[in-house]
Amino acid sequence: xxxxLQYFADWLIYSVFSVSDQSHLGQALNFFVFDTLKIxxxxxxxxxxxxxxxxxxxxxxxxNFLSRNKMYGLEYLFASSFGxxxxxxxxxxxxxxxGFVKGGIPLGMTFTYxxxxxxxxxxxxxxxxxxxxxxxxALYVGTGIILGILGGFTLGQLKLEKHLTPWVQNIIIHAQxxxxxxxxxxxxxxxxxxILKEAFSxxxxxxxxxxIGIAIGGLMHGFLPTxxxxxxxxxxxxxxxxxxxxxxxxxxxxxxxxxxxxxxxVAKGVPLGTAIAFMMGVIGLSLPEAMxxxxxxxxxxxxIYFGTIAFFMMLSGYLFNIxx
Amino acid sequence: MKKNIKVFGTGCPKCKTTYNNVLEAxxxxxxxxxxxxxxxxxxxxxxNILSTPVLMIDEVAKIKGRAPSVNEIRELLLES
Lengths: 324, 80
Known about the structure:
Oligomer: heterodimer
Number of helices of chain A: 15
Strand content of chain A: under 5%
Order of helices and strands of chain B: EHEHEEH
Number of strands of chain A: 0
Largest sheet of chain B: 4 strands, mixed
Order of helices and strands of chain A: HHHHHHHHHHHHHHH
Strand order of the largest sheet of chain B: 2-1-3-4
Number of strands of chain B: 4
Number of helices of chain B: 3
Structural class of chain A: mainly alpha
Shape of chain A: globular
Helix content of chain B: 40-55%
């Protein structure tokens, strides 16, 4: 699918710049050009597609759908899948949380959505697809959806309402199903300019991180021998997976840059399950989000919430290390 | 008539961009308006806001969940 890009990278580095394809520098540069182009292409396509979906199915509609339909557990699957298609910014997590519980959506399902929305987002999908290929991306997305369902369901069973701040508890008591929304009657061509503009601004926003990430990845790719990390990190160490998740949490804002680097780590011998656990920690859990959530829940609940997600992330890390 | 503009946001970068773009758009178009920045969650909930930032002109939500450009805000100001 991306052969033509590889030809272009080969041509540019080996012919135009006449850097030898045997040299470390040549391989590093080739990797950098090929990966950068591929990721930016994918990022633009995926953010545009997500933008179109989202334009017709915004988060207000998701909330109303979940609030009106009770489907004996199947709604968790919906909540989690909706988390994938709607864009999410951690600064929206609080209004979203309140909006959901206000619409009578159970706490567990709200958590499901809150887990999946940041974990499986358009930027992560595009960079995953560009670095690890579509198979690993599908695995990541699938795991993210299941993780959201299990995490939200578990949290829902714990009866955590008492740990919410009092005014939020008050909202839950007065919760009611939301009314119909006024719909935009715009056609797709009228929507396209703002969708493309938004896609472009997302790409622009993460591009420095991606370029730095790929540059570091390119250097490691060209200069480190295959299997280099295997002696340090391997499947035999039980503590590698938990450590990976915990190390990932503070790196939130650099998710776009971290993935290309991790891809090289995997190519040089780090187990894929450990790497996925690490990236889930990076993308799905963030300290700024925890700080924001303090407005709606107490510290104990935030700890339970993060702990539960981290537990399932570690579990999937171990699982991938066993089956892959 | 003087317009009433509200920018809802929890203080994230996008919300700040929106607020600054509104001020810039007003300056460029020479229009006058009361611009209010709403950061209080409880007040936000009265307006049923799910994703921030939200740009509201005369109590109608025009933009939800993204930061509009200066030009886009100018067009919105002119048509409303």
